[in-house]
Design a protein that fits this description.
The chain has 24 helices and 12 strands. It starts with a helix and ends with a strand. Strands 5, 6, 7, 8, 9, 10, 11 and 12 form an 8-stranded antiparallel β-sheet that branches. β5 and β6 form a beta hairpin. The longest helix has 28 residues, at 352-379. By secondary structure, the chain is an alpha+beta fold.
């Protein structure tokens, strides 16, 4: 007895260690995901906070969707983050790990097995469906919705299994706030009524009508209140679809059932639909991974069949609440699947919730199967030594582990194709834009002018401005200029950043130094910051008009005899300096490399450095047209 008490006393240490391990898994499996700059919906969401008060932000005048619970959190979250975008992904990973730890404890209470619950939590973390929760600023919204949905399930499960009405009230609260976090979870309303019915139906037929009516009225009142608030805010009962679509206009029954099939296949490990939504379709997966997925599906089917066999064979040992509990989990699975099937496309992030509910149902099934086996073992000798030691159905554990292993392996493989998902390809462009500007030149971009050649990525002026404002709030309005050709910008000076686009790799390339060297190729005596020695030789590429303009600055005191001999294409001319700033223009052939030789009869007497064989003489700024 003493030993048992000691084990119970320190059981929590095992849970702590497994929780720490889950956090480690979360960071390892999401290695490579980063946010350096905001993209698309993230950028739009970020920009809406600027110059808007709290109430205006949470309850805007014009909106397509009404998510005030999330917007409250987003207001606080953004205020804390400020422009430290790089910490978004680590925070998302920690939130995801926190959910997994909660799932671990919930699954442990269902399965009565620490190993099974840990495996299910690891499957949740490794799942390819987590890409949006981790890799986007708006991933916090998806995480919140999952937390509230699982909390609703947890309290309804407790309520129908003997807990008091307080559990039901908590479930109603989580349903209500989830509807204003992400509207698709409004479909879980029938589960509130279901819980009341299966909890009170025996009392109902025995005259216990009051409790049933009160809780039913409460659920309906919460639903009507939810619908009413949404109608006042949006002037519509029908939720908006994804991608700016309207469910009332795009819904088709054939596409709805096709979407349901797609989601079920996703849960089983089979990617269907276009690559831009899932990274790689199942038909393009290599044969080894296909085999693993099929083995996993067979393992899961065998796990379910073994459970059904146990239920039928040992139905006397089955707990009374089996059917209602299974229906509860199935209701959450089906409801979250249906809510994602009514719009124009199925995005993998929407499968994360039904997949989680499937994992929890699996935990419950295992717990029931284990309980049956324990009762059976008390009545007769157990066949296998492992079963005798661990009080488990050995075949059930094997089927479960086959399924879990295959799902984890396939999800890791699918994660390797994240770069093809439209969100990640767009995020990669945003990261490269931030890397080649903000992270390369430091935080002070206010004095820089950024030129983007071609703009085949279709970056709007609004997005360009807001993109850099998210990194540096006081950035000026005209920070970015789009150009068709590098010849439009003339001489590339120290305050200019020029970017080209790599369409193949979907990223921005910094060509500033390259263009500076093309337009002004130093042979000797002339430097990128404009300083020129007493003698310098360099090549200049003329522009479309064939005009080269020199601005010569001498920051010292003129004595009156300063002159510069300028040789252009073999023709020499002498420029006499009459002021500290002098100008010299060259007319030549357009778009041609022009060799230039400059030689002065003076130098800076107080110069603190000497870069070449000659002394520094003057500053030369070149403008090309």
């Amino acid at each position: 007895m003493a030993l048992i008490k000691v084990e119970e006393k320190y059981d929590y240490l095992k849970d702590v260690l497994l929780s720490i391990l889950l956090i480690c898994i979360a960071f390892v499996v999401n290695t490579g995901i980063s946010i350096k700059g905001l993209y698309q919906d993230d950028l739009l969401m970020w920009s809406t906070r600027r110059g808007v008060g709290f109430l205006k932000y949470v309850f805007p005048d014009k909106m397509r969707k009404f998510r005030p619970v999330y917007w409250v959190v987003a207001w606080i979250y953004q205020g804390i983050l400020k422009n430290n975008l790089a910490v978004i992904v680590p925070i998302n990973i920690i939130i995801g790990a926190g959910i997994a730890i909660g799932v671990y404890f919930f699954a442990k209470s269902l399965s009565k097995s620490r190993g099974i619950s840990f495996t299910l939590s690891a499957m949740f973390l490794v799942s390819r469906f987590s890409y949006y929760n981790i890799g986007q600023y708006l991933g916090v919204m998806e995480a919140m919705a999952i937390i509230f949905a699982v909390s609703m399930l947890y309290f309804l499960y407790g309520y129908i299994n003997g807990k008091n009405n307080l559990y039901y009230y908590y479930a109603c609260i989580f349903f209500f706030i989830n509807c204003f976090t992400h509207e698709r979870f409004i479909v879980l309303f029938p589960m509130l009524l279901f819980a009341v019915f299966v909890k009170e139906y025996k009392r109902l037929f025995k005259g216990g009508l009051l409790a049933t009516l009160v809780n039913t009225f409460l659920a309906i009142a919460v639903f009507i209140l939810t619908i009413g608030i949404r109608f006042i805010a949006l002037k519509s009962f029908v939720p908006e679809g994804t991608g700016g679509s309207k469910v009332s206009k795009t819904f088709k029954i054939t596409e709805f059932f096709a979407a349901l099939k797609t989601e079920v296949l996703y849960i089983l490990g089979i990617n269907t639909g276009p690559d831009y939504l899932n990274g790689i379709r199942f038909m393009d997966v290599n044969i080894f991974i296909k085999l693993i997925i099929f083995i996993g599906i067979l393992g899961f089917i065998a796990f379910l069949l073994k459970f059904i066999f146990h239920i039928i064979k040992y139905r006397k040992n089955t707990e009374s609440g089996l059917i209602k509990n299974i229906l509860l989990f199935l209701g959450f699975i089906i409801g979250s699947i249906v809510s994602s099937a009514v719009t124009i496309r199925v995005e993998m992030r929407w499968i994360y919730a039904p997949y989680l509910f499937t994992l929890l149902l699996t935990a419950y099934i295992y717990g029931v199967d284990k309980k049956i086996f324990v009762i059976k073992s008390k009545n007769k000798k157990i066949g296998t030594s492992l079963s005798r030691i661990f009080h488990i159905s050995f075949s059930t554990v094997v089927f479960f582990l086959i399924w879990a292993f295959c799902m984890i392996m396939s999800d890791i493989y699918y994660r390797g194709h994240y770069d093809k998902i439209h969100i990640f390809s767009g995020q990669h462009r945003a990261n490269s834009l931030a890397q080649e500007t903000y992270y390369k030149y430091g935080r002070n971009l206010s004095n820089k002018r950024i030129y983007i050649i071609k703009n085949d990525f279709k970056l709007s002026s609004f997005d360009a401005r807001e993109f850099f404002r998210a990194l540096e709030p006081d950035i000026r309005e005209d920070i970015v200029t789009f150009i068709d050709n590098y010849r439009e910008i003339g001489q590339v000076d120290e305050d200019m950043i020029v970017l080209s686009e790599d369409l193949k790799n979907k990223e921005y390339i910094n060509v500033t130094d390259f263009l500076r060297n093309i337009k002004v190729e130093n042979i000797y005596g002339h430097y990128t910051d404009g300083w020129t020695d007493e003698e310098g030789r360099f090549n200049v590429m003329s522009g479309e008009k064939g005009q080269i303009h020199f601005e010569i600055m001498y920051p010292g005191e003129l004595e009156g005899d300063e002159q510069i001999e300028i040789e252009v294409n073999g023709k020499k001319e002498t420029l006499y300096l009459v002021s500290n700033i002098s100008y010299y223009d060259i007319e030549t052939t357009p778009n041609t490399v022009i060799p230039i030789h400059m030689k002065s009869n003076f130098y800076m007497p107080d110069a603190l450095e000497q870069r070449g064989e000659k002394k520094l003489s003057f500053i030369l700024n070149i403008k090309i047209e």
